[in-house]
Amino acid sequence: MGSRVTSIRSGVDGLDELLCGGLVTGRMYLVQGKPGTGKTLLGMHFLEEGLRNDETVLFIHGEESREEILANGEAVGVDISDAAFLDLGPDSEFFTEDYSYDLVNPSDIERERYTQDIHDAIREIGPDRVVIDPITQLRYVEANDHQFRKRILSFMRFLKQRDVTVITTATRSPEQEYDTEIRSLSDGIIELDRGTGGRRIQVSKHRALGQREGDHGMEIRDDGIEVYPQLVPVRTDRPFESRLLRSGIDGLDDLIGRGFDQRTVTFISGPTGAGKTSTGTQFLAKAAEDGLKSAIYLFEEDAQTYEHRSESIGIPVSRLREEGTLSITEIEPRALSSEEFAHTVKRQIDRQETDIVMIDGIGGYTVSIRGDETELIRDLHGLTRYLKSRGVTVLITNEIAEITGISSATDSNLSYVADNIAFLSYVEMDGSLRKVVGVLKKRTGGFEHTLREFEIAEDGIRVGDPLTGLSGILQGTPRTDDPSDISRLDRS
């Protein structure tokens, strides 16, 4: 009969999710990454979690003093002052005496001191959790890689006999052979990275419990390390129910086939200034009348400007905020990873039971969120799939380059993300610009395959009758043999 596998929390909630529940008791884990990626801090979270559970914990360190470690932890709200410390660094008492080596190899003496010191500390303290920072300091006193492997194997058995869970750290050094040895012997490997896309974390190995694949978002904030796993759509057997999201504007609702189905993703595309945000907000205002809650995330303007613009055309955004049917969140440029933004949205729908999420707009999203644009679009697709699985309707505004005409439904080849695409466009008439609105795609239900006049006035959005007898509108220059048809666009 096999031994029962039990797990303990790592001290970082998102990391436990990647580890499929936590760290396996009595196992050894390797945290690896470049300098400054948070390896030591992750180990400190692990020990702090043990202290919260009234466990005995031991920090074996060799590169920083106890005082430096505690000060670094205090800066991010991590307190392990009640932990036991074993300093193997050159400033510890272990190295203060003046040793001379007349007939033996110095590494033989130092190796015995290292291992004896560690063994004595563990036997005396009886820790439940141990951090060794870094594990590579043990390699420096071994004669070769073979001896190092034997030493680590012996050390692991010694710890497992006492049911001690260990986190070791190492700076990634692929050119060094013992890097492979440590990875091979570790029961779990947690890899940290930091690049142009921000901090990243990946669990590449986890014996017994398995792990969530891929790399995920990570930040170091005022409260220490925060991990943001990529969101996974929620499995549900709930049948699709056709409930329509309407704008409350008769002409627009007629154009879109009485409304867009809820639990779908709708893109509102068009050139700058055409009215994309205002159109999306009109849907949110109508949803509030129907008892639905919405959240809008602003990437391209501040909340004050957004409220003022909306109020100026009769959309009562301030009142909706006060009533709790609309929340408005500004996203600071380059402050979040795509995963952290996704978890920001998730927390909102969890706390407020949000029915509709509006992202305004794609251009600002890809500029403001850290990371490669292609990966950001992939992550946005993942977010929309998650929201739909939670029964949330998604509206996304998308700016296209053309001022007049439509050559592409969406920017950056995003059509596959959208269930529905409505578009706004300018048309040139007698040297002035007019606006039209149409629908290019609706995955469920019918819609008008025509264009309608579109105007934003002081009393709100106006959508006129279908434009018939005209051609060239999508090129931005409508043409007809009957001048009276053209005159219907003239609002002068």
UniProtKB/TrEMBL annotation:
The keyword Kinase applies. GO terms for molecular function: ATP binding; hydrolase activity; protein serine/threonine kinase activity. Residues 472-492 are annotated as: Disordered. PANTHER family: CIRCADIAN CLOCK OSCILLATOR PROTEIN KAIC 1 (PTHR42926:SF1), PTHR42926. Its EC number is 2.7.11.1. Residues 6-241, 243-477 form the KaiC domain. Keywords: Hydrolase, Kinase, Phosphoprotein, Repeat, Transferase. Residues 479-492 have a biased composition (Basic and acidic residues). Gene3D superfamilies: P-loop containing nucleotide triphosphate hydrolases (3.40.50.300). This is non-specific serine/threonine protein kinase.
